[in-house]
Specification:
Layout lengths: L1 H23 L15 E9 L2 E9 L5 H8 L2 E4 L6 E5 L2 E2 L5 E7 L2 E2 L13 E9 L2
Parallel strand pairs: 1-8
Antiparallel strand pairs: 1-2, 3-4, 4-5, 6-7, 6-8
Length: 133
C-alpha cells in the first residue's frame, strides 16, 4: 500500500508541475503581427517648355533622385549611378552645346548628381532644362 501511495503522490506532483509550467509558457499565438511602416513621399516635377508634370510619389528608403525619375519617365543618361548625367527625359534632349537637364531639391539647385542624391521624406524634386552660364 505504501508503494501505491508513493506512486499516486508522484503522479500528482508531475501533474501539478506540468500544469504550472504550461501556464508559464502558453502555446504561441497563431496571429500574425504586422509592423507599421510610415510611407516616405516626395513630390517630383518635370518641366518641359510649357508643360509641367507634377506627381506626388512614395519611394523606398535609400532610393536616389535618378532612380525615382527613371521609374516615372523614360530617361537617357550618360554614365551610371553616382556618375550619371541626364541627357533626355521622355525624348526631350538637352542641346549639349548650350543647355543641360538640371535638378533642384527643395527649391535649390542640387550640388551632387541625381544618382548620388538620396531622397528624404517630403523632398520636392524639380527637373528642367537650363542654359550653361
Amino acid at each position: 500500500m505504501n508503494k501505491k501511495l508513493i506512486l499516486l503522490a508522484g503522479i500528482f506532483v508531475v501533474f501539478f508541475v506540468a500544469l504550472f509550467l504550461w501556464g508559464k509558457n502558453p502555446v504561441p499565438s497563431t496571429q500574425t503581427k504586422t509592423a507599421i511602416v510610415a510611407a516616405l513621399h516626395v513630390t517630383q516635377t518635370v518641366i518641359v517648355k510649357d508643360r509641367k508634370d507634377t506627381t506626388s510619389l512614395a519611394f523606398k528608403n535609400g532610393e536616389t533622385a535618378l532612380q525615382l525619375l527613371s521609374g516615372t519617365h523614360k530617361v537617357t543618361a550618360k554614365g551610371q549611378k553616382e556618375n550619371a548625367f541626364v541627357t533626355a527625359i521622355d525624348g526631350v534632349v538637352a542641346d549639349s552645346t548650350k543647355e543641360f537637364w538640371s535638378f533642384y531639391v527643395n527649391g535649390k539647385q542640387a550640388t551632387v548628381g541625381a544618382g548620388s542624391y538620396t531622397l528624404k521624406n517630403n523632398d520636392t524634386i524639380e527637373w528642367k532644362i537650363e542654359a550653361f552660364r
